[in-house]
Amino acid sequence: MDPIPIHKAKTSLSRLVARACAGEEVVIARGKRPMVKLVPVESAEPQRRFGALRGVVTVDDSFFDPLPDDELAAWGR
Q: Alpha-carbon distance 57 to 51, whole Å?
């Protein structure tokens, strides 16, 4: 991809960010001189995945039984 002039980058930043996130190399230039490369940030936090513990954790039917009175009292009820 050819370098993109700074002025054009300012007016189309959201499109350039989308292209960089899609894996395209985006280079921004001042005049004809390349200055910076736009790259996506690696996620620091792992993404939660629904069902990740399926088959690892099991819950039996007693989980749904009402709590004893002393336990409810400890919760302020």
A: 10
Tens digit of each residue's pLDDT (9 = 90 or more) over 11-63: 999 999 999 999 999 999 999 899 999 999 887 777 788 888 999 999 999 99
Q: Which residue is listed with tokens 């190399």? A: 25
Residue ranges of domains in the chain? 4-38
Q: Residue 35 is inside which H or E element, if any? A: strand 33-38
Q: What pTM did the predictor assign?
A: 0.54
Whether 30 and 7 have beta carbons less than 8 Å apart is answered as no
3-class state of residue 56 by DSSP: coil
Place of tokens 């039996």: 60
- As a whole number of angstroms, the distance between CA 26 and CA 16 comes to 7
